[in-house]
Amino acid sequence: MSAVAAKPQAGGAINPTAMVVGIILTLIFLAICYYFSPTLGMTALIGVVVGGVLIGFGTHFVPVGGAPAAMGQAPGIATGVAMLAAGAGLAGLFGGAWAAEQGIVIAVITGGIGGGMLMAITCMMVNFIYVFGMGIPSASGKVAKDPITGDTQAEFKSQGTEGHGLPFISFVGGVIGGLLGGAGGTLIYMSLLNLYEAALPGIMNVTAAQVMPIAVSTAGIFAVGLFLVNAVLTAYNITGTIEGPHDPKFKRWPRSIVASACASALCGLVAVLIVVPLPI
Amino acid sequence: MSVKVEVIEGGVPHNTILIAGVVSTLLCIYLTYLNVITGTEMFSFFGGLAVVAALIWGSHTIKVLCSYGIGTGVPSAGMIAFGSGVIAMLLATRVSNILLAPIVALILAAIIGFVLGYVANNVLNMKIPAMVSALTEMAVVGALSLMGFAALITGTFGFSGLTTGTVSMFGISLLTHTNSFIGGCLIAVAFLLGAIAIQHPFNACLGPGWTQDRMLMLTAECGFLSMIVAAVMSFALISTGSALISLIVAIIGWAYTYKEYMALSKRDAHSWLDSKPIPEVEGQ
Questions:
Q1: Does some domain include residue B276?
Q2: How is residue B172 annotated by DSSP?
Q3: Do the domain assignments include residue B175?
Q4: What are phi and psi of B167, to 5 degrees?
Q5: A8 and B84: CB-CB below 8 Å?
Q6: pLDDT at A1 over 50
Q7: B199 close to A (CB below 8 A)
Q8: Residues B86/A225, Cβ–Cβ less than 8 Å
Q9: Percent of chain B scored above 90 by pLDDT?
Q10: B182 near A CB under 8 A
Q11: CB proximity under 8 Å: A 11-70 to B
Q12: Lowest mean pLDDT among A57-61, A84-88, B54-58, B118-122
């Protein structure tokens, strides 16, 4: 096969054995955490796993166009899955971190709105550039009619392309994806922050006020690390471009949920173990 | 099922680079322990050399992985390397015997990378032969590079050293947690300095004209460029003289690798022209 024809073919098939192994691994990591830190650590780890799953699921909504979109040959935002997910999630995380003192519920909602707003602004500016800069209309190549507005797509689609621009459904998908990603990222940060604020003073023999910069910084860098791991795994699930919730690739989300839960449980476990007295 | 679109031809085999990378990175990180033995901070620059060694190994691993069409772009590989690496590195610094920290980071990162590789290959059905080994290696690269950055900036790689700094007020030196590698969130800057340096070389050099020595020289150049920035940051945490040594080493390394990289680029280019501004022709 030539290099041109060698498109990534991960396929939509689900490998049942691997899915079961993934779920069992997740449960094992949760059990190890319960053994070391049954109350504080376990609460934090569950928050991390839920946040990771939200990120993995939310990323499927985001219209990712990649290089073809930059040339106006595919719909979506012209960059990779990992970059978009990281952008939406980190914007949400920064938004949520400002509201950290208001409690976990308000912080998570604020984070979600932060991520959603970033995606809304990105999608709008992308469409501005497509329509007024490149002179192309928005048309989806995957569906005949927009599922929300009912607008027909085929008349606007150029021959030889998979569609172009950012149809309404993709815009809505992008905002939903940003909401879920931002909320997930903030949930991870808040779970770890609460754990470190409670446990680090005892381990380092310092006061709660002195430990704040370390708790914030450690929770933040762990949240960023976990976010990137989940975003890249979701990118591997999507392989390339996705138009939004109406794309056939969207049906692959169950795989991503198991993968994100397993990866978040392992990385979250390591993050929790930092506050557990180690044998070595 | 993916199809491999490029074949590695010629050059040093990947396993040689892997072994050389592990050994030299660990050696350089341990050489920073001379700081503790001699009671100075002069040997911090070995942390930067560890970063360069790890990055060279890591960028070749990215080349091995991304030779298969993974369809997500090369930068994602650098992001997952440091995303999983930072988690392993932070826990490893917590071990009570500081000399075990780099080894623990290596083992822990390998475990995390292996599980991520399994998840990507089987649960997500990527079915790429090099996936598990490449993600394992990259998590280790991420963890060891961050440990190298930590050693370069603070002179140590233990949790207490990374979270505690001193601030001098009215001539009295006070302990503080804000003025430290983790508390001041210098780790976030180190994270992205490494993540960008590891993904850029293959992203820039890939294609039919790819040559191994040119890509690895570009990696070394990116590594030393990151080391310059990290050495400047280290002025805040270690003595001026020691930070100056790191900065001079980084600048010399960068200048040398940049010169070599330009020479290799000209060697691989079909032809080049040292162009000058368009001359103004009079009388026409």
A1: no
A2: E
A3: no
A4: -130, 135
A5: no
A6: no
A7: no
A8: yes
A9: 50
A10: yes
A11: 11, 13-15, 17-19, 21-22, 25, 66
A12: A84-88
